[in-house]
Amino acid sequence: MSCTEVVDLIGRFAQRTRAPLRTSTTVTSLRRTSDGYHVTTSHGELQARTVVIATGACNRPIKPSFATELPPDVQQLTPFEYRNPTQLPDSGVLVVGASATGVQLAAELRESGRPVTLSVGEHVRLPRTYRGLDVLWWMDASGIWDQRYDELDDLERARGLPSPQLVGTPERTTLDLNALKAMDVELVGRFATIRDGRALFSGGLRNVCSLADLKMERLLDLFDDWAQTYEVEVPASERFAATEVPRPRLELDLRNGEIGAVVWATGFRPDYGWLDVPVMDEKGRLRHDGGIVESPGLYALGLPVLRRRKSTFIHGIEDDARHVVDQLHGRLAV
């Protein structure tokens, strides 16, 4: 679906359910009461026996603490603030972060004619298509998206994985580091710190890229094994060139005018500033077990690997929602 089609789908859903929908309404406080929860909003108060938190995990962009040390004449933006290249000066741009957002912004800014440097940390490399089919078809059909949270060896790591380097285009273009390098985007290592007006980068770029290549190959092997086991008729197996890693520079002077802007594509975090219930861990994450929050009658949906690997996708939330609704129904039936 296109963006417009998704919006229309949600609108039709709201009409069909006839739920008492409140738009343009901000929840400013949620607190526990003797028989449920008191909700304060920008348009009044609500009482509820049960509450589902479905605010997602990408409410606030993350910037490193040393972002305050950028020279004052270097513009800095997050993806929340960025709209198009015309917001930025005509000089070079440093994009920090090589997950989905970072590679997409690097490509768009380079296509605008600006010199672009991309700072690369841990990332997930995937081809847009594999053996003639969309890679997300493979993830779904092979059962990887359906892996449950209680079946994973390292749940915390799975929940913290970067978003894969994918872009949605009608041509189903693969946008990885090799594609960016072919566009003359300069690759450097992880942005470590700023010292005396100079950006310092990690020297581990080659190792980071090799690890991403290795994980991609292992995933493609799983696809091949699944296709062979179930005799799925698809084109022959294929493989992709390893990431080309030139000898990257380890520092960049931010005072000489080469870089006019920095775009921090360094991830996002949830915003629970309105949640006045003690259900957060020391890292500000919601404490829950498969969507059942550690407070009676409080539930969550739409968080990474909530119950399955596909939990944060629109199509993937359905199975999670069925479980949460069953729990909610059982509580309301008491």
Q: Can you put this structure into words, describing what you see?
A:
- The chain is of the alpha/beta class and 334 residues long.
- The radius of gyration is 22 Å and the shape is globular.
- The strands form 7 sheets. Strands 6-15-7-8-11 form a 5-stranded parallel beta sheet. A 4-stranded mixed beta sheet has the order 3-2-1-17, with no helix packed on it.
- The chain has 2 domains: 3-59 and 269-332, FAD/NAD(P)-binding domain; 65-265, FAD/NAD(P)-binding domain (3-Layer(bba) Sandwich), CATH 3.50.50.60.
- It is 26% helix and 21% strand.
- The two termini are 40 Å apart.
SSE order and pairing:
Elements: H1 3-17, E1 27-33, E2 36-41, E3 44-48, E4 51-53, E5 60-61, E6 75-77, E7 92-96, H2 100-111, E8 116-119, E9 129-130, E10 133-134, H3 135-141, H4 155-159, H5 177-182, E11 186-188, E12 191-195, E13 198-201, H6 205-229, E14 251-253, E15 259-264, E16 268-269, E17 275-276, E18 288-289, E19 292-293, E20 298-300, H7 317-332
Parallel strand pairs: 1-17, 4-20, 6-15, 7-8, 7-15, 8-11
Antiparallel strand pairs: 1-2, 2-3, 5-16, 9-10, 12-13, 13-14, 18-19
